[in-house]
Amino acid sequence: QVHLVESGGGLVQPGGSLRLSCEASGEFFKIYTMAWFRQAPGARRELVAQIGNGGDGDILYKDSVRGRFSIARDSAKNIVYLDMNNLKPEDTAVYYCNTNADLKLYWGQGTQVTVSS
Fold first, then answer.
1. What local confidence, expressed as pLDDT, does residue 72 receive?
2. What string of DSSP letters covers 23-91?
């Protein structure tokens, strides 16, 4: 079983920045991928960014966040970060941490990000 704890959400003005963090704990053998999804009210949950075990070459971004968001991973501590810059109102959503550990998917509880003036 894997437990994911997110932190770092909040209210920010357009153009501002936030850093989200997610730490995985529990009993597992190997983490394959760590990712961030988001879900806005009335919308489907969507992938924002994902990082695997292959370093910078194993990263995916949603087109609308590429160049503004950056995902990074501390594999020794099982922590994934999402640095979000130049935030826009359309980035407002609940952000969920996700991991594939031992070929099973796990989700965090979510953290609210609100971009508003």
1. 95
2. EEEES-S-EEEEEEEEE-TTS--EEEEEE-SSGGGGEEE-GGGBTTEEEEEETTTTEEEEEE-S--GGG
